[in-house]
Every structure is written in structure tokens, then in C-alpha cells.
Amino acid sequence: MSAVVRDRSVHLLYHWTRLNSQNLGSLSLRRWLHGSQIQRHGNVTRPDPGTGIKLHFKDSKGKLLKTIEANEGDDILSLAHEHDIDLEGACEGSVACSTCHVVLSPEHYDLLPEPSDDENDMLDMAFGLTDTSRLGCQVHVTREMDEMTATLPSATRNMFVDGKKPTHH
After folding, report:
1. Phi (first) and psi of residue 80, to 5 degrees
2. Among 131, 169, 132, 125, which Cα is nearest to 149's?
3. CA 56 to mean position of chain CA atoms
4. Which entry of 43, 77, 119, 121 is 20 to 30 Å from 132 by CA?
5. Residues in Cβ contact with 94 at an 8 Å cutoff, skipping those fewer than 6 apart
């Protein structure tokens, strides 16, 4: 951008702000913009074998489905999708459903921060809720979670479209 255009833009912004602050009184001197944090859903990089954090996925009957390795910071929903584990995630990690509900091992559940109010609201709708239930999209893996088990419930409640399976992005 040239200096002349840039100076003119600043000049116009100054007059717009001055004009609006006079017309609005003390309500607003500036316009503020905000943004949301970028979601990392589906952006999983597999660690080199033997270097990652081990997670075990089991079905509702306790049968081992798969043991995977994860990187610190990955969420359980994205990891399940990356490794073709049948964890739905209908809202794609926006905390608007309970289809990524998992039951965690008690010793690892206590390592997690408290669930947010939004997560608790969605967990209230989850099928087979337990004391160690969490939404997979909200559980981010740390080194302390090595050897954690995430058990999938026998069913999910999808208020949007029952039976729809997510696709990889």
C-alpha cells in the first residue's frame, strides 16, 4: 500500500471516528472487532512410533478397539477420527452436541480441568452419563494422560440427524 493511500485511509478513519463520537456522545469512541480461537479439529499429525502419548479406546463392553499414539494438545475427537474409531462428533467440536461423549479412566479424569458450563450442559444430554464422562472434543491430551482409556458409550443422542456419520475433512 502506498504512503498516500495509507495516509488517506488513516485520515478518513480519524474523521469517521470523530464524527461518530460526536453523534453518539460517550457511547462509543471506536469500533472494536473480535475473533474466535481457531479450531484444530481434524488437524492431527501422527507422532513417530514409540514417541507419542498412548491412548486406549474401548467399546461399551470393555473390549479394546484400538491403542493409538497422540501428540500433546490433540483432542480425543480428532484422534478418534484420524484413527477411524467410531466416535461421532456431529457438531465437529463446537460443544453443541454430546455425540463425542467418552468415559475416561478415573485416575486420568482427575488430571483434567473442570468442564465448562457449555460442556456440562451438553453432557446432561449424553447417553450413559457417568462420573468420569467428558466430551472428546474438549479433552486435550497431556503427557500425564499416557496410557489413558477412553470408553465409548453404547449409544449417542444426536438431536440434529440421528444415524449420520461424520466424514473426514
Report:
1. -60, -45
2. 132
3. 20
4. 43
5. 39, 137
- Residue ranges with strand state E in the chain: 53-58, 64-70, 101-104, 133-135, 148-151
Which DSSP string do the residues of 6-73 spell out, in sequence order?
HHHHHHHHHHHHHHHHHHHTTS-SS------PPP-TT---PPPTTTSEEEEEE-TTS-EEEEEEE-TT
In angstroms, the CA 82 to CA 84 distance is 6
Which grid cell sits at 81? 477420527
- Name the one residue in this structure whose C-alpha cell is 475427537: 77
Q: What whole-number distance in Å separates Cα of residue 88 and Cα of residue 55?
A: 18
- The model carries a pTM of 0.68
Q: Which three cell numbers stand for residue 26?
A: 460517550
pLDDT, tens digit, 9 for 90 and up, residues 93-136: 899 999 999 999 999 999 999 999 999 999 998 888 999 999 99
Cα–Cα distance for residue pair 6/77, rounded to 1 Å: 45
* pLDDT tens, residue by residue, 51-92: 999 999 999 999 999 999 999 999 999 999 999 999 988 888
